């Protein structure tokens, strides 16, 4: 086999050299090797060694060490304040909580350590001198884009049920396909995800959602996703009976995700959740056409409940819920309409909202797509003009402030100041007033003295 050369960062190379000086075997392992082979930039580097935790500590007397994980054979070494995990070769013991082994047995054999890992593509090791170690044919599975468990798929998923979501995540991220036995065990064992903490499920779910192939995995494994998002089942087969739609709600959602051009997690979550309220907010007309008035609000409420249950952070949850709430709002083309949106939800959220809207449109009947997407593109052009011209669309952009309003309008401290500031802003956004101080003071004076009708 042709020698595989993997780029080794300087801190990792330093750790390898220091351990080798002490007579220990040491390799980069797992995801960093896999990603390097695939030409992807590794997110982190795991290092595996024949040295025991005590021997690792002795090899780095002058480096800062984080001792957490010692009981499982892991030492974290800080190199220029960047953490690198170094783990002793080990054979895991029995799993009773589907998460961590109850006991760990160290070994001096690299292959035995690799044998306990989840998938063949993650069971490869690399050392600059020795080259690639691939005892379970991970390179072949990379070549043919397959997700294969190391040894028995039944045993690997039984050891840690989270590997079910990890398999789906690697399929989604890499564009790989699970082997039949892998997919069979996913379907057979997915119910065991109930034993996994929601935080760990959330972490894997977010990585799947953020990947290009999320739509594919959603079609392949709806039962898996429905285990922790049971509301998803109500979308499957729910007909829309609407001239704008060619699919049921589930298939529309899949197509919208497929057409979503954003890789931002907030946008992709909003596209996923945007129509969850349709099965609970439909009205069938006498002509047989089904309408979904108010489904944005219902979808937002359901999304909020699901994201709380999945322990999303408040900022992500609030942003996604707001996008879902407004995804089906009326979007008018015009300077003042875009400014109103900017004032209501801010530039970032408005940009994201337009991305959600485009994905939603592209997941509907193609007959209406061109004109509706053109409308969104026109709105985006207006948005760029407003931002480039630094037009006023928020209170901080106004040429007058609270003190100006208080002085001119002869007000005391209180809500009245905020009221008049917002009234002025509304008129500036709508083009009724110019945003310069003299004009705004003139208008306030006229309103105060009664010679400008309010």
Explain the overall architecture.
- The chain is built from 20 helices and 13 strands.
- By secondary structure, it is of the alpha+beta class.
- Among the domains are: 10-144, Beta Polymerase, domain 2 (2-Layer Sandwich); 402-445, no CATH class.
- A seven-stranded mixed beta sheet has the order 3-4-5-2-1-8-9. The protein has a two-stranded antiparallel ribbon with strand order 6-7.
- Helix 18 (402-409) packs across helix 19 (415-429).
- Residues 301-443 form the CCA-adding enzyme C-terminal domain.
- One of its GO terms (molecular function) is tRNA binding.
- Pfam families: PolyA_pol (PF01743), tRNA_NucTran2_2 (PF13735).
Task: Give the gist of this structure.
The protein has 20 helices and 13 strands.
Compute the number of strand runs. Answer: 13
For the record, the CATH class of the domain at 10-144 is: Alpha Beta
State the share of residues found in helices, binned by percent. Answer: 40-55%
Straight-line distance between termini: 83 Å
> What's the story with the biggest beta sheet?
7 strands, mixed
pLDDT below 50 for ≥5 consecutive residues: which ranges?
A: 93-99
Overall residue-averaged pLDDT value: 93
Shape: globular
User: Which range does the strand content fall in?
Assistant: 5-15%
Strand arrangement across the biggest beta sheet: 3-4-5-2-1-8-9
The CATH homologous superfamily of the domain at 10-144 corresponds to Beta Polymerase, domain 2
Radius of gyration from CA coordinates = 29 Å
Structural class: alpha+beta
- Number of helical elements: 20
Domain CCA-adding enzyme C-terminal: 301-443
Domain Poly A polymerase head: 26-148
Organism: Eubacterium plexicaudatum ASF492
Family: Belongs to the tRNA nucleotidyltransferase/poly(A) polymerase family.
């Amino acid at each position: 086999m042709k020698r595989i050369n993997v780029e080794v960062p300087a801190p990792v190379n330093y750790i390898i050299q220091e351990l080798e000086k002490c007579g220990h075997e040491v390799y980069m392992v797992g995801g960093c090797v896999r990603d390097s082979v695939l030409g992807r930039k590794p997110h982190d580097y795991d290092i595996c060694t024949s040295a025991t935790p005590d021997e690792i500590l002795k090899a780095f007397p002058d480096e800062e060490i984080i001792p957490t994980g010692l009981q499982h054979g892991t030492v974290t070494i800080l190199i220029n304040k960047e953490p690198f995990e170094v783990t002793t070769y080990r054979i895991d013991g029995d799993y009773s909580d589907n998460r961590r082994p109850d006991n760990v047995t160290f070994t001096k054999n690299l292959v035995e350590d690799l044998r306990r890992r989840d998938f063949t593509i993650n069971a490869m090791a690399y050392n600059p001198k020795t080259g690639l170690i691939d005892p379970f044919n991970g390179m072949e599975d990379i070549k043919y884009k397959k997700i294969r468990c190391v040894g028995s798929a039944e045993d690997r998923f039984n050891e840690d049920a989270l590997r079910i979501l990890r398999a789906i995540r690697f399929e989604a991220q890499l564009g790989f396909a699970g082997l039949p036995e892998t997919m069979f065990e996913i379907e057979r064992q997915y119910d065991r995800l109930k034993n996994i903490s929601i935080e760990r499920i959330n972490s894997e779910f977010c990585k799947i959602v953020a990947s290009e192939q999320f739509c594919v995995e959603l079609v392949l494994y709806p039962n898996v996703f429905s285990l922790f998002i049971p509301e998803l089942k109500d979308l499957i087969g729910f007909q829309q009976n609407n001239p704008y739609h060619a699919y049921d709600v589930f298939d529309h959602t899949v197509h919208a995700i497929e057409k979503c051009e954003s890789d931002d997690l907030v946008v992709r979550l909003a596209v996923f959740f945007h129509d969850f309220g349709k099965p609970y907010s439909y009205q069938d007309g006498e002509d047989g056409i089904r309408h979904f008035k108010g489904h944005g609000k219902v979808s937002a409420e359901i999304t909020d409940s699901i994201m709380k249950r999945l322990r999303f952070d408040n900022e992500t949850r609030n942003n996604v819920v707001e996008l879902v709430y407004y995804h089906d709002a009326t979007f008018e083309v015009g300077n003042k309409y875009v400014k109103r949106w900017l004032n209501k939800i801010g530039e970032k959220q408005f940009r994201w909202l337009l991305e959600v809207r485009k994905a939603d449109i592209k997941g509907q009947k193609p007959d209406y797509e061109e004109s509706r997407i053109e409308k969104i593109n026109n709105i985006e052009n207006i948005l760029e003009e407003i931002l480039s011209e630094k037009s006023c669309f928020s209170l901080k952009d106004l040429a007058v402030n609270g003190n100006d309003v208080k002085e001119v309008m002869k007000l005391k401290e209180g809500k009245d100041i905020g009221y008049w500031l917002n009234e002025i802003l509304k008129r500036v956004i709508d083009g009724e007033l110019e945003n310069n101080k003299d004009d705004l003071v003139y208008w306030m004076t006229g309103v105060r003295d009664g010679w400008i009708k309010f």
